[in-house]
């Protein structure tokens, strides 16, 4: 992916009095009373919006929330207005729609530095179909396009890809820029030694990432439920642990590939097993090759934590995607928490630590170490696809630097 032009290259002369269509990712969790339970994504969008405001733009914000089928009041963006206004220090105006004349009037009525939030763009099925006519209607609201929604960059939707065809310049926002710098930078040109920690419950969802990383990493550490497919592929008994029977050959071939490429692939040597999948299960620590029948592995054990930690101590760049165990249950969170603590410590010593989206982000936040990492990716699916080396439509659509 060629480097993309950033919003930072646009100056007051390019922005003053112009209306700027900004695709942001304000897809935040709401409780049953429509209160925001986690405003991380809203806060992440602020630097780009403020930059545009300070340079005299009329800012038109576009986002989705959830997966509505048509107009669905519980997926309205209205509950976001108070928090957004508070963070930006201006009264954000809310539109009842995302296209058409009324919205155009609201845009025209914005002062320089004013902000308008469009209603959920996914209320129109044309958004996800990337319908050109719909994209034209969105583009008609503005002069400039900024995409700061990395979390949806892997989707070719009207607001993430379609509008870029009708608005010039089309540039990356600061958040998008940071994601690309870290994720593309790490994969394409990491400071070595480079380690990847890949966890999560299934090999099948991480095949692409593992295969792609095998060509760049020096060390690959595997954890989470997926390890049992690797153990079984080596002929070990895994009790009632999670196994993807149809992926045994694949696990074997990944181990062979790692060997051929000289990648040090580390599987846990010991695991914490449980007699049932529950927070209060009986648990014990056993060698990874000796899981008794009727027991299931739910976390990596203390020896593995030590081995992983020694391996990570030698590195300069680390990408982490996927937990080491069932960290939602405190009893089986030790492995994941240990990795989070170590990465935070290594960050402090100048190692580049990248948390590649998904559950790892939740794990790092649970331990309260999010601000210690070099970079925390805001995109689950988008980070995965980028780490797999797939092109992201929302990024390709932007102007090259």
Automatic annotation (TrEMBL):
SUPFAM superfamilies: Phosphoglycerate kinase
Classification via Gene3D superfamilies: Phosphoglycerate kinase, N-terminal domain
Pfam family, one: PGK
Signal sequence annotation: none
Reaction it catalyzes: (2R)-3-phosphoglycerate + ATP = (2R)-3-phospho-glyceroyl phosphate + ADP
PANTHER family per record: PHOSPHOGLYCERATE KINASE, PHOSPHOGLYCERATE KINASE 3, CYTOSOLIC
Source taxonomy: Eukaryota, Viridiplantae, Streptophyta, Embryophyta, Tracheophyta
Keyword Magnesium belongs to the record: yes
UniProt keyword annotation of Transferase present: yes
Enzyme class of the recorded protein, top EC level: transferase
Cofactor dependence: Mg(2+)
Source organism, top-level taxon: Eukaryota
Coiled-coil regions listed in the entry: none
Subunit structure comment from the entry: Monomer.
InterPro entries listed in its UniProt record: Phosphoglycerate_kinase, Phosphoglycerate_kinase_N, Phosphoglycerate_kinase_sf
Keywords: ATP-binding, Kinase, Magnesium, Nucleotide-binding, Transferase
Family: Belongs to the phosphoglycerate kinase family.
Listed HAMAP family: Phosphoglyc_kinase (MF_00145)
Name of protein: Phosphoglycerate kinase
Record EC number: 2.7.2.3
